Amino acid sequence: MKKRIALLGATGSIGDSALSVVAHFPGRFEIVSMSAGSNLEKLLPAIAAHRPKVVSVRTREDAARLRQEFPGLSVGFGSQGLVDVATLPEADVVLGGIVGSVGLAPAYEAVKLGKTLALANKETLVVAGEPLMAAARASGAAVLPVDSEHCALHQVLRAGTHAEVKRLVLTASGGPFRTRDFATFPAITVDDALRHPTWKMGPKITIDSATMMNKGLEVIEARWLFDVPGRKIDVVLHPQSIVHSMVEYVDGSVLAQMSPNDMRFPILYALTYPDRIPTPLEGLDLTSLGRLEFFPMEPTRYPAVGLAYAALETGGSAPAVLNAANEIAVQAFLDRRIPYPAIVEMVARVLGRHRVVGVTSVADALEADAWARREAAAILPLLETSPRAATAPAFPA
Fold this sequence. Notes:
The protein is an alpha/beta fold. The protein has helices spanning 13-24, 40-50, 60-69, 78-86, 104-112, 122-139, 148-156, 190-193, 203-211, 213-226, 264-272, 303-314, 318-334, 341-353, 362-384; strands spanning 3-8, 29-35, 54-57, 74-77, 93-96, 116-119, 143-145, 165-172, 233-237, 243-249, 254-258, 295-296. The strands form two sheets. Strands 4-3-2-1-5-6-7 form a seven-stranded parallel beta sheet, sandwiched between helices. Strands 11-10-8-9-12 form a five-stranded mixed beta sheet, with helices on one face. Strand 3, helix 3 (60-69) and strand 4 form a beta-alpha-beta unit. The radius of gyration is 20 Å and the shape is globular. The model has no long low-confidence stretch (mean pLDDT 93).
């Protein structure tokens, strides 16, 4: 019997990989609903190829165009459209590939219904990890990670019990600036930051990989996925991005998961779990790897990671604020409004102004998210005008 998939983010990098996996296994998977932003030129052939029952796009105008192109297709738009895609009764698995906190509401509503959530959107658990995982426990929904690091941990954790885990080790490429002179960081351009050495991703995720905010968010995500406190989650630099993460057990054994730098592997794992199936995707040629290197993370070079650990330790609304402020800061950098060091500076300033509250519901999380966006927008003009020094901001301020 085919697994029926609701695909959130069909035209992004995760969507591309997911549709490739489905195309490789037409007898196993079926796309029954999908969402996209504004890239209709990419969405139209995807609809034609997969014939979903429900589609959602960003705007009312784009929805009207799709209804003309595909008479009889159910088309929604905006936030409600995303929820409609994720909660389609026929869908067995919701693959969350949307970037940012916009992916929270559809993921949460799907989990409440007991649907399996294959999650590539790390922001969902960063913003509202506690209420989302509580909803999953209540409904019996499985939450399966698609991020390559968390997918690796999920696989390696099958080798032992929770009590046997000493620590989780997330690997990070270090981005394009791992060896760059720290004093030159104020001169980093958008084009510089978008040149990721090992992965091909969307612009927001690529900038997060440069600052390593993505790794900080992954630490918070791992805390909720695997019920492990932040003090037992470490980050090491691994430029080759072949070892996707590791688990150290209490007996001293360190188990690692390796695969090529191809998101189709973790997507296939999540879609077929708990089974493994043969794949036509090309695996690792171990003899060609040469060497695998690991280096400590420099806190001064990557202050975003320290901010994320501090937000996790503070708890409550702090992670939601961290994420929202970062989304505003990254977009401002991509728009060439602020220099590179100001990304993390903005996040630190917003966190320093925030009065932390508890987050027991999605509404609580979204309220903190909205506050942080307003605060970041207010701070933005202060960071636009003058070059920033390469400093390591602290939180709390």
